[in-house]
Design a protein that fits this description.
3-stranded antiparallel beta sheet, 304 residues, 5-stranded antiparallel beta sheet, Ribonucleotide Reductase Protein R1, domain 1, 40% helix, alpha+beta
Amino acid sequence: MKKEKGSALIIVLVISLIILSLTAYTIKLSKEIVWQSKSFLDKIQAKLDVKSALEITKYTIAVSSFKENYVENKSFQKFLPQEIYLTGKPIKMKSTTIRLYDTSSKINVFNLSRNYVKKLYSNIKTEKNLADIAYDSYLDWKDEDKLKHINGAEDYYYKIEKGYNYTPRNSQAIQDKEELKNIRGFMKNYAKIKDKLTFAYRGGLLNINTATVESLSILFNISLDKAKQIIKIRDRKGSLNFSDIQNITGNKADLAFDMHSTFPSRVVIIKINSKIGEAKEKLEAVIDFNPTENYPYTVIKYIE
């Protein structure tokens, strides 16, 4: 009888242990399902937030006024601040951060000039006439004929001399700054200059009121420290004109009047990030806010 009671007790304990284990597993599984469900919902919400922020930004800029280095908010929906800066100043919207950049804050590869290329290469140790080789090859890449510029490159260079499986585009429509990597003179040095470049179908002149430190340094042949000083004064004053640049840099500066302006191109890079819980989403768009007959803006590039 005692043995039977002992056996029954052991069975009860084993069953209880099994039930406890199953309960613990069920609770753990439920927590994982809840966590996964929350993570999934957070990811969906973060994605919706970045897309919603982009639509708000597009509408706001389209109905607002461009100033020297910001957009004056004219929208009746005040989701964004009164002054929307085009220099990367963060704008917070709940879980979302928006940054806007004027494409004329950097050198635009769509419309390079020989002077820009020479200035880009002036701080890089390269062979003597590489800037001329790069620029002439850039012209050959864009023009429609097969005639080589003096220092340029056409089909023979790419296919026969180098054995590449491509030839020049022979079209004005360069698609992206990364395309420079394929052009003679830019290939080996692209990594050194890419952060100083941008791409937009419009513009060409650097805007001194949104230009980066590196762009100002290249443009005016001044040190990075002097360029940082210009930006500090720009931040204090709000905007700069050509006289300000002359006063700041002194007579030794190359003012390069044909290479810069004081107004944005109206082509804007919009970068949006959202973080909800562990979920992160980002989005980047390049939008031309020069209105056409049918549209208030044109989306040039869209990356999720």
